[in-house]
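for the writeup, i need someone to sanity check this before i put it in the appendix. the sequnce is what the collaborator sent (i think, or maybe the updated version? ugh). structure was predicted straight from it, no edits. if anything looks off just tell me and ill rerun, i have time this weekend
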Amino acid sequence: MVESQIRIRDLSAWYGSEQALKGITADIPARQITAIFGPSGCGKTTLLRSLNRLLEEVEGTRVTGQIWLDGMAIYGRGVDVTAVRTRVGMLAPKPFPLPMSIYDNVAYGRRIQGLHGRLDKGNGRNLDRIVENYLRAAGLWDEVKDRLHAPASGLSTGQQQRLCLARALAVEPEVLLCDEPTSALDPISAQRIEEQLLTLKEEMTIIVVTHSLQQARRLADQVIFLWMGELVESGAGVQVFQAPQDVRTQAYLAGDVG
């Protein structure tokens, strides 16, 4: 039996007076890829951003219910939000490299969070080795190893997204949230991102929001299907895609709605 790393219970969210999530309850297993899918406006990104409390950055939002990460209630009183966001990394739909070198983009998170020196020096690793390690993990090292101190803005869009992946990984999160991580990429770059996610799930829990049913089929061990802010169906990807139980899931997978 696969252990649940994230437990979501009766989660609801509002943007002002508009309710975006309605009593979501789900378990997300450790070291698997869980895909959240459904029609536009169903609450996919809202659910994803609630998992690291980024939803609170939007003015007028309100969240009820609870989410547990390895037993810690992330909406509990006194919880350090910065610590939550360190443990739960994020890869956005479009790449946003920082206006600095390739090297400094990867090192940035470790520096601002004080990880370099406190952790790296103590176990004998240096920052050069760490930057290389996470560029390799993102599948980018061989393409940039000879120009690490060149501006990140000189990379292609696909390379920039893999750089953003390396930057997210460099602070060593336990969970990686991916909000349509290939939507701005060409097919070859998208394939590379997917390949890296499949490799990374051996070490961390990955949650992907996607509009692409094909991508969900390729990546997902587990799926969550949302409809108008409600969780309609969830479970093993193979089971849901081959034998959906709810008529709304059936209609969406058949292309009759959405």
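Confidence is low (pLDDT under 50) at residues 117-124. The chain has eleven helices and ten strands.
thx in advance!!
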